[in-house]
Amino acid sequence: MSTENKDHLGNIDNEQNNVDNATENSNESDTNVEEQLKAELAKEKDNFLRLFAEFENYKRRTSREKLEMLTTASEGVLSSLLPVLDDFDRALAQVEISENKEHLTGFTLISNKFSDILASKGLVEVKIEKGDAFNADIAEAVTQIPASDDLSGKVVDVIEKGYKLGEKIIRFPKVVVGQ
């Protein structure tokens, strides 16, 4: 065989190796591309799930806020009417002491109607009485006075009534606590 033929055969072998290498590289690159696409798909699925969960949380939060807003929308108005309710209670106490009982009937009717309207809007009095154990979560201690052992740590006097709207206390009752 001549050198030219040997060179020609060597070139053919080299070309065959190059084709084999190219095929292997192509298979490897196809595998790499496929793996990259799978990784990208997994990443996008993860992003989608996170966005979906975030949107669900947003919907729940906004519906809860909307419900809360509807239940406490009148809080400002009701809070500003509480002093009027207190004045009615003081007026009723004074009229009961006086001799004029005709006024008592009128005041009682107006006070009851006003209280019923506020109750229909969700306003409820926070029940606390003399002798109850003091609870800082539902009452505000204005002062402490020396008291007997049986009134120690208990409510001695209720200075101002407290009210709640739904489950939220909008004005804490002001009390005197025994020491």
Quick overview of this protein structure:
The chain has 179 residues and is α+β, with helices and mostly antiparallel strands.
Describe the overall structure.
- By secondary structure, the chain is of the alpha+beta class.
- It is 63% helix and 16% strand.
- The chain contains three helices and six strands; from the N terminus they run αααββββββ.
- The chain has helices at residues 3-72, 75-97, 101-120, and strands spanning 123-126, 140-145, 155-160, 162-165, 168-171, 174-178.
- The strands form two sheets. A three-stranded antiparallel beta sheet has the order 1-4-5. A three-stranded mixed beta sheet has the order 2-6-3, with no helix packed on it.
- α2 (75-97) runs antiparallel to α3.
- The chain starts with a helix and ends with a strand.
- The model has no long low-confidence stretch (mean pLDDT 84).
